[in-house]
Write the C-alpha cells for this entry.
Amino acid sequence: MTLSLSGALAAWQFLALAILVAGAAFASVYFARKHLAVDDGPSEGADGAFWDVFAGLAVVVPAIILASSAWPWAGLALGMLAAGAGVAALAAAPRMLARQDARRADRETQLKNEAAAARHRRALARWQQYELDPGFSIDYPAMSDARQPETAALIRAIKAAERLGGNADRASADAAYAPAVERLEAALAAAERAAGVNHAALPGPDHAHS
C-alpha cells in the first residue's frame, strides 16, 4: 500500500490513519483494563489484557510505519495520538466500566423483581382467602387475628412489600423489593403454621406445595 505525498488526498489519508490509530489505541487499552477488572483470576485477566494490547499494537505500529514512509513527521504525530488515546482510555475506563456494572445490576434487579411481583400476587391471593372466604375464616381464625404474633408479623410484611411494590416503576428498579417479598412469603408460612393450617387439605397449587 502506498500513500499520496501531497494535496487533499494526503490529508484524507492521514485523517483516516489518525482515526484508525486513535480508535485502536483507545479500544486496546479499554479492553485490557476491562479484562484486568473482571474477577476471573489474575492469570485469565492478564492473558486477556496481553492479547488486547497485542491486537492494538498490530494495528497501530503498521499504521505509524506506513505513514512515516510517506511523511517523516506523520509517524511522530500518530505515535503521540496513540499515546494520548491510550491515556484517555485508561482514565475513562473506570467510569465506563462502573456504568456498565450499574446497568447490568439494574437489569438483574428488574428480572428478579418481575419474578418477585408474580410471587407477591400469589402470596396476597393466598392470604386473602383467610380474610374473604367464610370457610377459611371459620377454620383458621388466627389468620385474621392481629393479636397473634405471627399474624401481626405477616401484616407488617404485607405492608412492607406493598410499599416497595405499589409503584411498578419503582418496584422494577428497587433492589429491596424481592427480599421484601421473600420475607412476606416466610411470614405467611409462619402464620399458617401457627394457625394450624393443613396445606394438604386446602385447594390450589400454592397450598399443595407449601
Summary: Residues 106-208 form one domain. The helical segments are 7-37, 42-70, 74-132, 134-139, 149-165, 168-173, 177-195, 205-208. Residues 22 and 81 are 6 Å apart (CA to CA).
